[in-house]
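In this supplementary section we document a worked example of the pipeline. Step one takes a protein sequence of length 704 as its only input; no multiple sequence alignment statistics are reported here. Step two produces a three-dimensional model, which step three serialises into structure tokens for compact storage. The input and output of this example are shown verbatim.
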Amino acid sequence: MDQSVFTANSERVRRQNEQPITVIIANPPYSAGQKSANENNANDHYETLDGRIMETYAATSRAAHKGQLYDSYIRAFRWASDRIAGINREGKGLIGFVSNGGWLDNIAFDGFRKALCAEFSDIYVFNLRGNQRTKREESRREGGKVFGSGSRSTIAITLLIRDPDADHQGTVHYHDIGDYLSREEKLEMVNEAVNGEEFEWRTVTPDEHGDWLAQRDDSFDRFAPLALGKLKPPLGLFATYSLGISTNRDYYSYGYSKTEVEKNIRRLINTYTSELVRWKGLDKLSNIKQFVIKDIHLIKWSVSLYDQLRKGTRIVYSDDYLVKSVYRPFTKRWLYYDPHLIERMLKNANLFPLNLLAKADDPHHVSEQGQNSNELDAVIKASSLPFINRVIDVSGVGNTGFSCLMSEEIICLDAVQKGQCFPLYWYEPIDDSMKVPEGELDLGDAPTLKPGDLIVEAKSGERFIRHDAITDDALRVFREAYPSNRTLHADDVSKAKEGVFYYVYGLLNSPEYRERFSTNLRKELPRIPFAADFEAYQLAGRRLAALHVNYEKVERCLSIDGGNDGRIVEDWSEGTDHSDPGNVHKLRFGRTAKTQDNPQGKDKTTIAVNRNVSLHGIPDEAYRYEVSGRSAIEWIMDQYQVRTDGKSGIINDPNDWVRESGNPRYIVDLLESVVTVSIETMKIVDSLPPLNEQTNPSFWPMGW
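The serialised model returned by step three reads:
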């Protein structure tokens, strides 16, 4: 027991802690704490126990986020391990847990796995599988949930044997129950194992990363890193990058209707302001979380918003913060882009400065001279740029399957799983207060421009330096790796770095790359090999980027001869205006006979838009292109439906976006365009040559 918690009976607790215990058997709880700052059910803090987790499991972990190490069941492992070891750390004994098995292969638990090997002579793990947070075939392979509806997690039986006198340490014995088993079949196998049926254990040798299962390909470490973690030298290929936007209040901050987002945000800000007034009149030692109103219909609190209230920060609504963004693959929504209401802004303000995003609404801005000029007074207007930025959004560490997606608008954290955004450019604000008045001596305080830099002026008059995000070292490495490539050796440095950027996007879409390094890509950020054919990959990257950012404008996959050309046929109800299909509530697949391979009886060649129109003849090929485990078509079907948030009551209706777009056919046209995008994407991807990666050039930056 933790004496820091049970202070009233500390002497009795001390005596109990001194008594040896040799066997601990349990099914510990799986709680990971509260899901929202509007709730008051955070895990209790145990100072001594959490301190032990920090100095053992967390100390050896390479994971960026270690919060899961304080989940209740991991705390139970830590407590039981220390209790068996005893005060003098010489105890012998056994621990038997039936628990969440997420720790077996999750990057966040690398330090936990290392500690088990260091503290126990033998570790036996019987993996019962059942992870229903997976999708499709992988979900079916995981089989039935051992606890029925009680858990969607992997379940594992773990036996830990501690024997300091053993002639070995940290031997891992592992048994996987197998694929496609029902709950009943799994329980029968457990029963047979208990009754002494033959049972085969596989000895697992942990690698240097603390991985037991699905170990990485070490050749991956020889490739060029996109990033090296912290944004300070040494850098990877990119000078900067950022997680996607995380608001912690998506149903308030995002929406298909600009008007509805404004209404919801105004209600939230008004509630915050009234709470700010009340808070200012109180003793600042009060518990702010218990003080504030927590009506989810009025406000959604978060750690950042609590901090701003505590500091007395005033928040004022402005229409300028309403911008278009990518919320999910091939799905745009309005976003309220106020840093006060973004939980984790990180570097997004440098990738998509708010004042530059106003360009689309100002057709009167015209281009001026000054591209690649070293004169700060020679600028190019933001409105003359083809786009403010492009980012390659890649699945972050801990993903369940790697994906990437190009965007030229602000992108949500969950557009791809745990998305990290690697930009073509980044923007640095110019402090014009430092500008030397005419006639005075310039002492050199003005910023200097490097080759490729560009001065950009926003509608507001604010000026920025647009820097290339690909580093100088990265360009030098690529030029040495490909000495005869014209793109890389162009006189225009910005154009040369652009070639590297699109090469990266082309390579990240390579099926060979994704398959060979699938485990690495789940557990670390991508590293980029030097493929034998640079030009093929960079041209593929450009073509893929054009498809993925311009998906709304791509030619629709619409038949002109009744479907004989293998394209989509629109089936309209009699008398319906083909230019206006009407409101869409939920897109649905057609129906067909249920089979073992298609247990839900979905006919994916047909999508019913509403009672007025259905689409027939959707090619099977269109479903091959997937982002984050779901086809692009199915992302459209998932996102373009009317939804009501169960807690706040906020309604998000894609028909509002349709009305604001001025195109009543928007959703129908979008589906038909995304079918083309999907088919053309797979044509490009399938045509990529083998990697046949080259050896690294002689110049190789320190830390890579």
